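Hi team,

Filling in the usual template for the complex we talked about on Friday. All components are listed, including any nucleic acid strands or ligand strings, so the model treats them as one assembly.

SUBMITTER: L.P.
PURPOSE: interface mapping
COMPONENTS: two
RESIDUES: 724
SEQUENCES:
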Amino acid sequence: METNVNKTLYPLIRDYMSAMGTSRTTLTALKSYMDAIRRLKCTESEFWPLLMELNKVIRNAEPAVVPLVHLIEEFEVELQAHLNKGLELAKTKAIEILNHKLKRFETDTQMVTEQCMELIAPGDFIIVHSPTAYISNALVRAHTESKRPFQVLILKQDFHRTKDLVDALAEHQVPHLLISEHNLSHYLGEANKLFISAVTITLDGKAITGLGTANVVSICHAYKVPVYLFVESMKFSHKPLPDQNIFKEEGNRTEKDYDFRITTFSHDYVDLAMVDHLITEEGEQPRRN
Amino acid sequence: MSFNALIPVFVFVAVYVAISFEWLHKATAAVLGVMILFIFGVIDVHSAAKFIDFETIMLLIGMMGIVGVLKKSGFFTILTVRIAKLTRGEPVRILVMFSIATAVLSAFLDNVTTVLIMVPIIIELTRGMGLDPKIYVVALVMASNLGGTATLIGDPPNIIIGSKVGLTFNQFISNLFIPVVISSVSVIFYFLATNRSRFKPIDDNLAKLFSVQLLIEKIDIDFLSFKIDRPFLIKSISCMGVALLLFVTHTITHLSAGVVALTMAMILFSITRVDVEHMLLEVEWSTLLFFAGLFILVGAMEEKGVIEWVARNIFLSVGDNPYVMVLMVLWVSGIASGFIDNIPFTITMIPIVNMMLQNTPIPNNILWWALSLGACFGGNLTLIGASANIVSVAILKRSGEHVTFGQYMRWSAPGTILSLMISSIFLVVYLWIYL
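RESULT (copied from the run log):
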């Protein structure tokens, strides 16, 4: 059963993360978990083993959804005390705990948005890559609420992410420009900030990011454009990079009837040494050596 | 039969074979056939034009135009994503809700358009749930062929029969609604009963339940990534609604279905200000050319007495028992449609059925309903029985799922026989009531 579930669930999580980001994936996964428990039909003795089986699958997702894993680990510990009170009560309690985790994560995300907003100054020309909802929200709110004049340079990425960001900025008339990643060199003289987010911060000081972010960070670092990395503290992993299950695939890609044998990874990673400012919901974090 | 009569027979058979074995595109084959008749002087251009049923052509162009604009509005995508959400990932719900939705949609759109809308989303949904999409797709395609039988505009055989014979939208729906609904429900039950393990509930599987919300949201993202233009959507749905209203009120307005469809399509193009050149690409001109060619080929055979010969020596030789006649038309059409294209078959059968009725009048157009039910339901028999079947299997193949001819028939044939048996009972009872 677990193998069949992996085949469908891991690509689903991966595709969702690619389109919507880790934070939104975490929130949707928690809602999905609550709905699953509501609908579940089992005996009292089956309940805990079923939860453990699912949690094991979530822990081993490729790549790991670290904030979700952290929240699930807390959930397991907190639910233990309620397991012997009957199935219905255990289910109710499980949903309650997950709902609490969801609200906490939403609050953390909102606080990161606030921190991001504070770092947008008048006259900024901000490059955005691997944006999640809080960077997008911060840009919109800085323009609409704080009325700060600034401009955004969007680097085209995954279709859904780019579209969502462009739509949000256009709707609120935030001045922006959309370019291909490989044209960034033309704007490095003007840009004064790079805003990125990450899927995870690993124990050995790497930020796992969307595809292309590593190259963008490298070039910005070389041209001394300050790099701002925004993450919830929930995304800090207890494991190093090799244990993050970044998905690697070898396959054929055909262009103009020519077959390329190509290796692709689901995510990039960036050394935190190239990140100038690491910001969580608690504010800027001290740089790691 | 004279030598002059044999030429159109040879040409017709050659066209049929060329289409069946895909040696030529169907439009090319049909038009080439017509050109050969012109070259050999079997018919002339003026008489050929008279054979073309322009009512059918207008109805097809009009409906293709309306459906093309509706597709652009995103209406169908919104509908299918809503249905996907309502299923909540439950296998039985996926089968039942998508089958019903497909059958209903097929009653008003052509079957190929319906499956082009429904099949990609059902593949995404079932795969995401770890289910085998193939059986769902076959069930869905069968539902489209069944549902399309219910109305004048739902399936090409009905469009041809209705236009040629003068049967109205209301007559189709009031006479065929019962066998279509009973057959559709029966086929769904058949799939559920014979494949229980594939439709097991998921409510004891926490991992599958967990996948549902993520999957539904992903489907939402993948399929609804466009911005919905509400005024455009409202105009499109309204025009479709007015067209249906005018079909239904034919006896009051005396407007033929072809006139209604083409008029509403042009009004829709005008009020939505679509790029007409682009929209006209939605009209399947090759299909229309194919129809026109077939009308001429069959018309030529009719003029040369070939149809009369076939009618007298095959269909009329069974005698004048109305029950036998009705069941013969139903089952011959049903089985034949499973293996050969039901459009040329229907066009060929119309003059034959006309002769049968001249010989033995049968009330309430029951013999036409037999032809309609046979030609439409029969398309479910095999993978090649209907265009919708072929298109769906091609979509499955692009998704990495392969269905063989035998595998398809193992699922489709029993359901088709069941629907033809239900139709037989319906027609016999209907005939018994009115004789």
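MY TAKE: Chain B has 22 helices and no strands. The mean pLDDT of chain B is 90.

Thanks, L.
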